[in-house]
Amino acid sequence: MNKLLLTRRSFVLGAVSLPGCTALNTLNQAAQPRDTFDLNPVELEGGRRGTRSLLVLVPTAPATIATDRILIKPTPISVAYLPDARWADEVPLLVQSLLIRSLSFSGQFGFVGPQAAGPVPDFVVLTRIDQFGVDALPDGSFKAVVQMNITVLRDRDQRVIGTRRFQGSALPSNDLAVPVVQAFQQILDALLPDAVRWIGARA
Fold first, then answer.
1. pLDDT score recorded for residue 3
2. pLDDT on residue 47
3. For helices 177-202 and 91-105, angle between their N-to-C axes, nearest 10 degrees
C-alpha cells in the first residue's frame, strides 16, 4: 500500500482547489486512484435478548462529512481531504453499517436493518454526525475526532425515548493514511459498545 504523506502544503492545495479549479483539473483529480479504507464494527454480547425489531436510518451530516473522502481540517475554518485515500463508502452510510452490524452482533434484537428492509420496526435509531474528521493541532500533530448524536424513537407513536451525544478522539502516530484510519478505529472501538448498550437499554 502506498504511503500517503500529508504535508502543510497539501493542506493548502486541498483547501484552495475547490471552486476555483478548472474543469480539467477536476477531471484529473477524479481519475486519480485512491487507497480505500474500511472500519470494523464491534462484537458485544451479554445484553438482554429479545425479538424487537430495530430500524437504523442513514445518519445526517454536513456536506463536508457526507462524502467518501477522509476529512482534514488544517484550521478551524478551512477544509481539505486526505490525498489519495478514501473511505469504503460515504461516511453516513459507513456509520449506518457500523451501527447495524454492531447492534446485530449484540444479540439484543430479533432484527436490525436499514430503512425499506425487514418487518415494521418497534424502534427507530436516528443519528446526526457532527464531527468525523482530523484536526491539525498547532504543534504540528493531528487529532481524529468523532462526534454524533443518537436518538431512539418508538415507531408506533413517534415518541422520543432518549437522545445522547457520543464522542471520542485519538491521536494518530503520524499523518499517513493508515495511522489516521487506525485512530478512527480506536475511537469507534470505544464509542460503538457504549452506543450499543445505550440503545439496547432504551429500545
1. 37
2. 59
3. 50
Kindly list the domain boundaries of the chain, sorted by start residue: 49-202
Q: Which residue has the higher pLDDT, 161 or 49?
A: 161
Residue at grid coordinates 432484527: 111
Over the stretch 123-162, which tens digit does the pLDDT of each residue have?
A: 999 999 999 999 999 999 999 999 999 999 999 999 999 9
CATH number of 49-202: 3.40.50.10610
To the nearest 10°, report the CA torsion of 115, 146, 91, 193: -50
User: Rounded to 5 degrees, what are φ and ψ at 192?
Assistant: -65, -45
Q: What is the pTM (predicted TM-score) of this model? A: 0.83
What are the phi and psi torsion angles at 117 (to 5°)? -145, 140
